[in-house]
TrEMBL record:
MF annotations from Gene Ontology: symporter activity
Compartment annotation: Cell membrane
Name of protein: Glutamate/aspartate:proton symporter GltP
Membrane-crossing residue ranges in chain numbering: 7-28, 48-68, 80-102, 156-173, 230-256, 313-343, 355-380
Encoding gene per record: gltP
SUPFAM superfamilies: Proton glutamate symport protein
Chief subcellular location: membrane
InterPro entries: Na-dicarboxylate_symporter (IPR001991), Na-dicarboxylate_symporter_CS (IPR018107), Na:dicarbo_symporter_sf (IPR036458)
Listed GO CC annotations: plasma membrane
Annotated keywords: Cell membrane, Membrane, Symport, Transmembrane, Transmembrane helix, Transport
């Protein structure tokens, strides 16, 4: 039977991506590209940010109210955080091994490297360090003093904390809570409709964002740092196929099936360097794929703060790259220190703009690596960010399946039916 070709969102985004690269390359160095295209890209990102909080709040409240069992929810939370910690630790170790094995910073001619501007990251890092993000501060920060303010700032953990308590409250009051539950069900349905509408604008947003990136940095400026880029991309692919693929196999899932299900979202996340752009659709698809609503609603948003596999993997490679670039030979104990510090700092300031750069600024000094080295990779950070965003998305999507399997609540038949429906289209 001949499969029917459909010009799906993935193909539309791909066309936008290619056209953006062409326009950026043709008009390299022309400020008009940023002037006219940046507003389109900014509008698209803002539209996505606009819907993220209502979707998380409504779906999480529905999921928790549907469960209604604080013990079950606490057990799920504990398992989820343990899983996140184990996988992100694996990501850091894989990054360190890759950097030590292939040594991307060895023999780099620093005179050929163009310095980027890291002033904005330095200011953010200083602010973060003033706020002191130790373990206790992270725990205290989960509890919001003003939920409206937390929602306005898009602070994920306080939003999750409030939504979980609110959902438990609705479950506890029984029939009195049904009208409130109906309101949030209507909100969730309406917001997913809005999401589908916004996604139609995605190819234009991708075209604009990529066009601006290429016009600013050009293709030639990437060549001196090509070794680092190749290693980062190769390690990310290895991590998805081998590490995440191995985890998927352990729970009875084919990682390539999951990648096919998420192809639209992965292309969009890659193009925009933003996990937020795909959060609503990932939640929707994981539910269709067989994970229960309450697990999806809890695991995916929590993962955006605690399960940044791609970011932590990149941070490990970048730290070693800069050390090698300066001829600094880090001992095993220094690298272990780096792992431990990254494990804490990557959780403590999740959600901060340019988080990977900020984490590196806050971390490198602990093992004696010059912070100035970050200026040399600032120019290609956007392109590296695209790769690590994809890994973050795949890692969080897989986490929902692992948790659903762990809880014995994954719907295998639903998964098979959904995948077969995708097979009918190219």
């Amino acid at each position: 039977m001949k499969r029917k070709f459909k010009f799906t969102l993935a193909y539309q985004i791909l066309v936008g991506l290619v056209l953006g690269i062409i326009v950026g390359a043709v008009f390299f160095g022309n400020p008009s590209v940023e002037k006219y295209l940046q507003p389109i890209g900014t509008m698209f990102i803002n539209m996505i940010k606009m819907i993220v909080v209502p979707i998380i709040v409504s779906t999480l409240i529905l999921g928790v109210a549907g469960t209604g069992d604080i013990k079950q929810l606490g057990k799920l939370g504990g398992k989820t955080l343990i899983y996140f910690e184990v996988v992100t630790t694996f990501a850091i170790i894989v990054g360190l091994l890759a950097a030590n094995l292939f040594q991307p910073g060895e023999g780099v001619d620093m005179t050929n490297l163009a310095k980027g501007d890291i002033e904005q990251y330095v200011q953010t890092s200083e602010q973060v360090q003033k706020e002191d993000h130790g373990i206790l501060d992270i725990i205290v920060g989960i509890v919001p003093d003003n939920i409206v303010q937390a929602m306005a700032a898009g602070e994920m953990l306080p939003i999750i904390f409030f939504s979980v308590l609110f959902g438990l409250g609705i479950a506890a009051i029984g029939d009195k809570g049904k009208p409130v539950l109906a309101f949030f069900q209507g909100t969730a349905d309406a917001m997913f409709w809005v999401t589908n509408l916004i996604m139609k604008f995605a190819p234009f947003g991708v075209f604009a964002l990529i066009g601006v990136t290429v016009s600013k940095f050009g293709l030639e400026s990437l060549l001196p740092l090509g070794k680092l880029m190749i290693l980062v991309y190769a390690t990310m692919i290895f991590f998805i196929i081998v590490v995440l693929g191995g985890i998927a196999k352990l729970v009875g899932i084919n990682i390539f099936h999951l990648l096919k299900v998420l192809k639209d979202e992965l292309l969009l996340a890659y193009s925009t360097s933003s996990s937020e752009t795909v959060l609503p659709k990932v939640m929707e698809k994981m539910e269709k794929f067989g994970a229960p609503k309450d697990i999806v609603s809890f695991v995916v948003p929590t993962g955006y703060s605690f399960n940044l596999d791609g970011s932590t993997l990149y941070q490990a490679i970048a730290a070693i790259f800069i050390a090698q670039m300066y001829g600094i030979d880090l001992s095993i104990s220094q690298q272990v220190t780096l792992v431990l510090v990254l494990m804490v700092t990557s959780k403590g300031i999740a959600g901060v703009p340019g988080v990977s750069f900020v984490v590196l600024l806050a971390t490198l000094g602990t093992v004696g690596i010059p912070l100035e080295g970050l200026a040399f990779i600032a120019g290609i950070d956007r392109l590296l960010d695209m790769a690590r965003t994809v890994v973050n998305v795949v890692g969080n999507a897989l986490a929902t399946i692992v948790m659903a399997k762990w809880e014995g609540r994954f719907d295998q038949q639903k998964e098979e039916e959904y995948y077969l429906s995708l097979e009918k289209t190219v």
